[in-house]
Amino acid sequence: MRALITAIGVSLLLCRIAAAGDLEAEVVRFSQRNFAEFLEFLSIENVASEPRDIQNNAAFLEDAFRKRGFEVRQVSNPAQRPAVFAEYTGKVMGARTILFYIHFDGQPVIPEEWAQSDPFDPTIKKRDASGQWIDVDRSQLSHEPLDQELRVFARAASDDKAPIMMMLTAIDILRAHGRMPAVNIKVILDGEEEIGSPSLAGMVEANHELFEADALVILDGPVHGSGLPTLAFGNRGITEATLTVFGPRNPLHSGHYGNYAPNPAMRLAGLLATLKDDDGRVLIPGYYDGVEITSADREVLARTGDDEVALRKRLGIAEAEKVGTSYQLSLQYPSLNVRGLASAAIGDKVANIVPSDAVAELDMRTTPETDGRHLFALVREHIQRQGFHLVDGQPTDEDRQRYPRLASFRLGGVQAAQRMPMDSAVGRWALHALQSPTGPDPTTEPVRIRMMGGTVPTDVLVSALQLTFIMVPTVNADNNQHAHDENLRMGNFITGTETIYSLLTTVFPAAE
Question: How far apart are CA 185 and CA 85, in angstroms?
Fold first, then answer.
């Protein structure tokens, strides 16, 4: 009997593998058909701060979703950076409704940093024998079999236009086979995510019924470094701040005034050095208060199976900071990061001066236990303890005569962190989908991440709509998002499409 049961189990496993193989062939076929549309999409500039960019992308998306059977509308906002809402017309009576969140805006670009002339001219590359990236003709995307190690380099290739095209491809496969989805599908496409989604709350409030659903799925972020199917049950928040240290009223000749007029760049460097110790731990008392990692939490974090040696090699660092004893553990604590520094000019425009000011842009990645405004207040108090008098805006003549150390510390955007229990209904559904015969790897246990390091506007959506959520990453971990040479591995386009197809074809059970 045991042998019979084993034989049946092996047979079922082989059937699942065969089904997954059939799906992969279809996904590859439809993906290759859609690659030209994907490259067209990537060629539309999408810098989040530029309303015209967002409008052009919204128009493209409105057309792309409508021709695939969606009812589509743009949702306007005062900033003239519209979101796009799409609802699939092929509704299933009695099925649960899933709201998918994806964003289509991108980070700013510095073209001269890229290894191609235009970050919005998608470039196909592959590695040569020495491991260097070389340009290849776009026609290689249509070759059979598809070389899944090819990559497309362009801004937003991975963050976050790829999941949009993956979803459209999954819908194309469903429609081609006359298959109805197992869930009712709503999609909100955000055009302001990279600047903190400032209009999203107002749009949701004004269109609450439009966004009503049973659960929220966020398609954003990279899969685990192993490349295995990945689920993330939370995300860190972000609090942004600008620190400016003031020096002389105007830039001064460094020969005439060096050793006499205090240099604000040097003072800023010294101030920043007081924020952390040599191991990367924030030195401000109370910064980590409230974060408690239980033994059960540590087991969950350990099960992600990170290869720390390989991770450090990929990042190009000899050792990691020691806020946590592992990569996953470090993400459970709030961070304090210098994301930009500026004072006078460098390169061929450098001048022999004592600068008039120096600026540091900071971001603090927060956790559900740590409030961003509270952390901002702690940093502000620390700056004052270092002897700086803080002003709003530019210091007055009276300020300059009275206070030897002048600075301003201005709060920017604030987004809260969110985290869901790993046994939530939406988590169990997504796990089942990724393990189904149509999942990207039905023979492998997906990686489950307690909290992803990046930030998406879950605080707005979860609070306004009272939804449980799950994050489903799809793109390659080494995608260079937010930096130059952002890219997408074509094999991840395939597995990502399989993941989304599986979500769309897996029944979400009724409320327990």
Answer: 11
